[in-house]
Specification:
6-stranded antiparallel sheet; 6-stranded parallel sheet; 10 helices; single chain; alpha/beta
């Protein structure tokens, strides 16, 4: 996937571009359906599939007081858009000046003159330009007048839940990771470099942990203990994760994510890891001492291993059903 980080980097319009535009926070199933539509249409006309997005998220600029929590980092978003088979990603630096651009000017200067839009695909709730003037009816009228068809992708539901970034944020905050996975089409993931913590996990409690420091600006799952998959150096390990402030040891100033990785004994300080949150086990609580905490962690590990084993069985059964039809 070719990435352009400024319109000035695009020297000529793309070949028959089928374009979509949006924020795409989380790249959930609804976004993936939209990308699939773009890729399919580009394939049929032997053109170019193009995604236009913004960095930072517009609400971070226009409404910073809302404290928007993003589902994915920008790097994750780029990675997931590439995995959807998109040819070109155009990243527009979002500013108040861009927000003030009239919708028709954006269509003429960006979509037509710079991108060369051949077809436009948009989500059911999309609107562009100053005061969101460029809604679906406006874009359809522009397309009819200026020669590009506009396709609207309808809302998508899973188990009566609307697949939306807002709903996913709500589910993450509630610790409902199985429902989050249904709407994302993959587990919810946190990433970061392993930091040096208090070093209590191994020496004091008996369960060494890899520690990530979470920013208060990040979308933080419900505090407590989770079953996880830990991806490090191309390999996947089971684990249990605690998100919170370590109340047993008097509490921490900053929230942290501490993961005990199963069957793992490597020095990974300063190294990047990815953690998939599979299931919420219990809330974080204060124990009466190290022995009580260690006993609970041992029970958490037993439960987590059972969850991971059941998930593996489910995967194997689904594969057998798929190939024995």
């Amino acid at each position: 996937m070719k990435i352009y980080r400024s319109l000035s980097d695009i020297t000529e319009p793309f070949h028959l571009p089928c374009v979509t535009i949006g924020n795409f926070d989380g790249v959930h199933l609804g976004h993936q359906i939209l990308f699939s539509e773009v890729v399919g249409r580009a394939y049929r006309c032997q053109g170019t599939s193009v995604v236009i997005t913004f960095e930072p998220h517009p609400l971070k600029v226009l409404c910073p007081e809302r404290g928007l929590k993003l589902i994915s980092t920008f790097a994750q978003k780029v990675e997931l858009i590439g995995m959807a088979g998109i040819d070109v990603l155009v990243v527009l630096p979002f500013t108040r000046e861009l927000a003030g651009t009239p919708a028709e000017t954006f269509v003429d200067e960006v979509l037509l003159r710079t991108i060369g839009v051949h077809e436009l695909v948009i989500g059911y709730d999309y609107a562009m330009g100053r005061n969101r003037q460029g809604d679906i009816e406006f874009l359809k009228a522009q397309g009819q007048e200026k020669g590009f068809p506009v396709t609207v992708v309808e809302p998508f539901y899973v188990d009566d839940m609307l697949v939306s970034s807002t709903k996913i944020r709500e589910l993450v905050a509630a610790g409902r990771m199985r429902d989050v996975r249904k709407l994302l089409g993959r587990p919810y993931q946190i990433r970061g470099e392993v930091k040096l913590g208090k070093q209590r996990g191994g020496p004091v409690i008996g369960f060494p942990t890899a520690n990530l420091h979470l920013s208060e600006e990040d979308l933080c799952p419900k505090h407590g203990v989770y079953v996880t998959q830990v991806i490090y150096d191309g390999k996947c390990y089971g684990g249990v994760l605690n998100i919170g402030y370590n109340p047993t040891f008097g509490g921490e100033q900053h929230i942290s994510a501490e993961t005990h990785i199963f069957d793992f004994n490597q020095d990974i300080y300063g190294r990047p890891i990815k953690i998939n949150l599979l299931r919420y086990l219990r809330g974080e609580r204060k124990f009466n001492g190290v022995d009580e905490l260690a006993a609970q962690i041992a029970r958490d590990i037993d439960e987590a291993k059972q969850v991971l084993a059941d998930a593996q069985k489910e995967l194997l059964l689904s594969c057998e059903e798929k190939y024995n039809r």
